[in-house]
C-alpha cells in the first residue's frame, strides 16, 4: 500500500520522480505522525524509489506550520503549465481534516 499525496490536484510524488512510490500511509498519516505540522520545520521522507526495484533514494519534503498555514517546501515538480512548484500551502483546519479522513479510511483497508 502506498500513500498518494496531492496538492492542487497534482500527484506530488509522481510529478517529482516517476520512479518513486509513496511510503506506507499508516506511517505518514497516523495521529502525530510525520505529516502533522509543528512550529519547528521537519524533513519528512514521503516516497522511496520503486522502479526498476526498491532502492535507497527518497523523496523528502519539509513540513512546517506558520500560524494557521501548513507549508510543504523543498519541492520541485512541474505544474500543468510546466512551471516549477517549490512550495505549497494549506489551511490548517482543512489540512488536518483531510489527513484524519484519509487515516480513518485506512481502517477499512485489509
Topology:
Blueprint: E1 6-7, E2 10-11, H1 12-16, E3 20-22, H2 25-29, E4 42-49, E5 58-66, E6 69-78, E7 84-91, H3 92-106
Antiparallel strand pairs: 1-2, 3-4, 4-5, 5-6, 6-7
Structural overview:
It is a single chain. Helix content is 23%, strand content 38%. It contains three helices and seven strands, in the order ββαβαββββα. The model has no long low-confidence stretch (mean pLDDT 90). The strands form two sheets. A five-stranded antiparallel sheet has the order 3-4-5-6-7. It has 110 residues and is an alpha+beta fold.
The portion of residues assigned to helices is: 10-25%
Overall 3D geometry? globular
Strand proportion, as a percent range, falls in: 35-45%
Low-confidence stretches: none
Radius of gyration: 14 Å
Helix and strand sequence:
EEHEHEEEEH
Q: What's the main sheet like?
A: 5 strands, antiparallel
* Class based on secondary structure composition and strand pairing: alpha+beta
Strand order of the largest sheet: 3-4-5-6-7
Give the distance, in angstroms, between the N- and C-terminal Cα atoms: 10 Å
Summarize model confidence as the mean pLDDT: 90
Number of helices: 3
Q: How many E-type strands?
A: 7
List keywords for this structure.
single chain, 110 residues, alpha+beta, two-stranded antiparallel sheet, 3 helices
